Amino acid sequence: MEKIRDSAGATSAAAPSDPRLASYRSYAGRYDELIADDGRIRGHWRALIRGVSEDDARAARRATEFTRRMIVENGVTYNVYADEQGRDRPWILDPLPYLLTAQEWRTIEAGVAQRARLVNAVLADLYGRQELLSKGALPAEIPFGHPNFLWPCRGVRPREDRWLWIYGVDLARSADGRWWVLADRTQAPSGPGYALENRQIVRRALPELAQSMDVRPLGAFFAALRDELLRGAGEDALAVVLTPGSFNETYFEHAYLARQLGFPLVEGHDLTVRDETVFLKTLSGLKRVHAVFRRLDDDFCDPVELRVDSALGVPGLLAAIRKGTVVVANALGSGVMESAAWLGFLPALAESLIGERLTLPSVATWWCGERPAFESVIEQLPRLVIKPTFPNQQRAPVFGRDLSAGQRSELIARMRARPHAYVAQEHLAFSQAPVWYTKNSDGFSARALGIRVYAIATPEGYRVMPGGLARFAADDHAEIVSMQQGGGSKDIWVLCDSSEASEESTAPIARADAARTDAASTDARTDDARTDPRAGGPHRDLPSTLVENLFWMGRYAERCEDKTRLLRATLGLRRNLPFWAQAVEICKEFGAASVFDPEKRFTLSGDIGRLGECAAQVRSSLSAENWRAITVLQREFRRAEAARSDARETLDRLLLSLVSLAGFALDDMTQDDGWRLMMIGRRLERLQFLGDVLARRLAAADTPLRQELEWLLELGDSAITYRTRYRAPPVWDDTIDLLVYDEHNPRALAFQWRSVNTLLIEVAESLGTRPQDALYEPIEDLIALKEQRPSIDDPPMVQTSRRILAQCLKELNAAAAQVSDQLSSQHFSHVDFDLKAVTA
Amino acid sequence: MRHYAVRHATVYEYGGDVAHSHHLLHLTPREFEHQRCLSHALGLDPQPSALREDRDAFGNRIARLEYDRSHDRLRVTAEMQVEVLPRRGGTLEDGEAWESVRERLSYHAQPMSPADLEACQFRMRSNHVPLKQAAEDYARECLAPGRSVASAAHALTRQIYRDFDYVPGSTTNRTSITEVLASRRGVCQDFAHLMIGCLRSGGLAARYVSGYIHTARDGEPGTLVGGDASHAWVSVYCPPHGWIDFDPTNDRVVGEDHVTLAWGRDFGDVSPLRGMIVGGGRHRLSVDVGVRRLG
User: Fold this and answer.
1) Chain A residue with the nearest C-alpha to that of B278
2) A535 pLDDT exceeds 70?
3) Which of A274, A439, A609, B84 has its CA 20 to 30 A from that of A694?
4) What is the pLDDT of chain A when averaged over all its residues?
5) Does ipTM surpass 0.90 in this model?
6) Distance from C-alpha of A140 to C-alpha of A336, rounded to nearest angstrom
7) What is the predicted pLDDT for the residue at A516?
8) CA pair distance B78, A605, nearest whole angstrom
């Protein structure tokens, strides 16, 4: 059992006398990041602990709450497949940063850069001459049995022999304070985006401390990555971030990285390979892609040559890579280095491949494929952790000490049958650090913690991000540090020492003058990568899928609003009116038979879901607030649905949210072609909805009651305007004037068609195409009809003139549908998801 | 020595237009110590927008096609003439014991000969050949202690031929070894995968060979007979003799009746024609293979 050393007793100046440290326990056998052996708070933590200690408990809670709220509101989520609670789970972030001194950091930094260089050299050999295998320096079993050793990549020579563009490494500290490597991340290391997002949130939660403690900024790291990916590719070069899609567990990060890098976020079907060159399908046609920053596992990247069952990849990508027309980072095949089995071989390789001693040791690891190693593993099993060699074995690590005698011999038999498939590792007790986020106390508690650090390739060698992602265990005793297991994350603050600050600063303490310094030096002092004019601004090349999703997001947002108004107006009718039944009938026809109906496809509930799906696909082009509004809207509606809340109240709230979405659409988005198509989607939807309801009621033979016209005015959100303008109970003629012809009424059909036409012309001008003109004729007919001014209120021509108007509206609707279809075929047609494998 | 002409025609009739497609072909006969390629030609209809010939990582000759224009059918006709040279005679009983080969191919922190290292490529799991306990159990009797690899592989060839029914259409490209073991039927591809799985479970090196078999009984030159499909068998690393091929579908040690196209870890590495198409709806596939002995 763990011995507990009480740390709250001592009373020197730097001693933890703060009552909030009362709950902080040091566990024997772990390195304590906060408290030194003499019971005093370590020097580099004092300013932080003092800083937060001066706040009272309420302020602390406020900071914590602020962080938590920021997380939810920014939609920082960590998707867990098949999570019953829905797709997204909030990313847990502790506001208290994890601190590293400049001196400690130098050791880590040098070790990580060296290791990245070594791993890259191993990759170059495995996919090249394989001398390490023929010399016996490495076992052939590990690469050849690894699912990410991609044979079709053998012989590919990436530019400058660079396989690793970004490298991640998991580190932890043992009881004696030394750092050890636990695992290498070479495929598409997750987390650098979370690290940057964490930094930005924590800076806002602890603004004074972030200001006064000299913390190394992260922004330059991403700027360097962006420059490196496009280096030498010319002014117009295009790079993309390739994601497996919004169901991936780290999709938020993909969207975030794309935004930070200023690259479009694309899926496999957004790209196409023509004549061994990669292109992005954009709104204005195919655009050559020079670099792909992939977040998709390498074996999924090209279904023609790699996994045939992958619909996520880009057919022909490997041929383009071979031809050298595109850079893919990390190079396809680099996932083979993700295996604990390599760890034990790396020290010797470092000496032979790069002629250096490995400065950052790996945790002691034995690959069981070697007979002598295997025998000694069996002897020491109780103190070891057994892990699979290959990621596709899908076995969780087994702690030898937890096994009964029976389980132990069962495991040994399994290992003996296929020793090469197992790795044994010494168990490392992780260091502990204070965590502030716990729900039940204002104090700090001690949690085991590990860190992930990142390096990127630059012309000067591997450059390490000065910070990273600290991850802590779910409870005091837990030793597994993983986001999937319910732990949390922390920002890592690497502190500058004074000598280093002056030697590093290209822009000496430029915070106050940031605005006036040039872009490059500003970059060095910020945590935001978006200083490049290319980044964050409007993409010049909008992926067709993105635009298509924006278009549909516009349509669904408006459709939700229309249905909400329809249901609300109908619920407001008196049930003894003869019109009640007809209104209900219309509700049914519009798929709004009831407020809550998650089962049926064409319902308000279904449309809210589809709105969320489209929004998730375009998340990289929505502001944080806009995305938040959509998630809140969905969450609240689902909650109301589950609780069967009062329908009218729910609709009122929903309408409010939807109206605010419309506000975001107008005020909160870059008005590029993507935005224009979204607005066209909204306008067309509104035009078709109101036009259709009006046409139906005009075609109905009965003379409308006052309530029916009021109902129509409410659907068109124009009841108040009518009342102020006409000061009388509604009649058909004036209702039609207001809902159809009034160009100044943002709900009127005329407003929609004018707006659609303007937007269509703008899109056509921007793309150099001819604008759609399907609406012109029905609009002219409607206007001509107005000028003849046949009253539809007065007999004797009532029936005929109503029918004519209804007919015109129907034609307008048909034309609107035609515009929608034409847009699809003109701009989205090469968005073909129908990718199939054929084998003979 | 034998002289063959092979014609392998594949036709896709698509249910709708295919807007764009990429294909990878393993349809050119491989040259090696037992086979020479006298001629080969690829007939393509329609003509692709791009065609590139190359070699894959296992040394097989491949062709990559791209179609960037809309098409509703694709016809690929490979025509080749090859000389198949006699393989070594002698008994299968001599040669290295299987346990010794397993040791030879395992890691000992020692330099490896190019031949042994090449064999190592073919002794681990691959997509179509996961290493399963069931396969290991099935092979146990064949892998008797001290037996030569060739003799063990031959015994396995016989055992599979004896235990399994050849039933065309009973399996697909996705049928697993475990399912085949349970149902005791399949086609040449399944038997080859099963046999490879058995041998690899024993730590041996075995590769999948794609090709054709000449099935004429009368041996009359010039007549088109049998062999209406592509064939597959297994090549086993049997030091010191090198690679010896076994055909579990026909209970044979491969001699001069087999024409080799390509080899790899399993079917996935060497499927004669694989591709990705955009659009196309449902498609109909027909394959026609003719093997003619010329001399």
Assistant:
1) A835
2) no
3) A609
4) 84
5) yes
6) 12
7) 33
8) 56
Binning pLDDT at 50, 70 and 90, where does residue A322 land? very high
Residues from chain B that touch A272, judged by Cβ atoms under 8 A, are 20
Cβ within 8 Å, pair B131-A418: yes
| A·B CB contacts under 8 A | 122
A323 to chain B: closest CA residue: B52
> 3-state DSSP call for residue A514?
helix
Q: Looking at beta carbons, which residues of chain B come within 8 Å of A130?
A: 117
pLDDT digits (tens, 9 = 90+) for A387-396: 999 988 878 8
Contacts of B223 (CB under 8 A, 6+ apart): B216, B292
What is the C-alpha to C-alpha distance for residues B246 and A431, in angstroms, rounded to an integer? Answer: 57
Using CA atoms, how far apart are residues A609 and A616, in angstroms rounded to an integer?
Answer: 11
pLDDT at A159 over 50: yes
pLDDT, greater one: A52 or B111: B111
pLDDT of residue A719: 92
Q: Between A139 and A58, where is the model more confident?
A: A139
Contacts of B58 in chain A (CB under 8 A): 151
Alpha-carbon dihedral sign for residues A381, A387, A390, A396: positive
DSSP A463: E
Q: Which residues of A742-760 are buried (b: 16+ CB within 10 A; e: fewer)?
A: beebebbbbbbbebbbebb
pLDDT at A138 over 80: yes
Candidate from A135, A307, A315 with C-beta closest to B111: A135
CB contact under 8 A, B111 and A136: yes
- Tokens standing for A786? 């107005």
3-state secondary structure of A372: helix
Query: How far is Cα B204 from Cα B190, in angstroms, rounded to an integer?
Result: 19
**pLDDT of A484 higher than 70:** no
Nearest Cα residue in chain A from B116: A134
Residue whose tokens read 């024609």? B273
H or E element, residue B15:
strand B2-25
**Any A CB within 8 A of B208 CB:** no
Poorest-pLDDT segment among A260-264, A298-302, A699-703: A699-703
Q: Look at the block and give the residue holding tokens 């764009």.
A: B20
Task: Please give the average per-residue pLDDT across A454-469, as a whole number.
Answer: 95
Find residues 138-197 of chain B whose CB sits inside 8 Å of chain A: 173
A164 in Cβ contact with A334 (< 8 Å): yes
Query: For position A616, what pLDDT does the model report?
Result: 85
β-strands A365-367, A422-426 pairing? antiparallel
pLDDT exceeds 70 at position A14:
no
Taking only the tens place, the pLDDT of each residue in A640-653 is 888 888 888 999 99
Instruction: Please tell me if residue B278 touches chain A, with a CB cutoff of 8 Å.
Output: yes
Please tell me if residue B256 touches chain A, with a CB cutoff of 8 Å.
no
Between CA A243 and CA A292 the distance in angstroms is 10
Instruction: Give the full edge-to-edge strand order of the sheet including B252-253.
Output: B252-253, B243-247, B231-237, B206-213, B258-264
Burial per residue of A494-532, b for 16 or more beta-carbon CB atoms within 10 angstroms, e otherwise = bbbeeebeeeeeebeebeeeeeebeeebbbbbbbbbbbb
User: In the structure encoding, which two tokens stand for residue A421, read together?
Assistant: 């498939």
- How close A321 gets to chain B, by Cα (Å)? 14
Whether residue A290 has pLDDT greater than 90: yes
For residue A170, the tally of other CB atoms under 10 A from its CB is 21
Low-confidence ranges of chain B (pLDDT < 50): 221-226
Closest CA to A415 of A443, A444, A384, A439: A384
Which residues in chain A are contacts of B110 at CB distance < 8 A?
136
> Containing H/E element for B184?
none
Closest chain A CA to residue B203? A418
Cβ of B66 under 8 Å from any chain A Cβ? yes
Q: How many C-beta atoms lie closer than 10 Å to residue B86's C-beta? A: 10
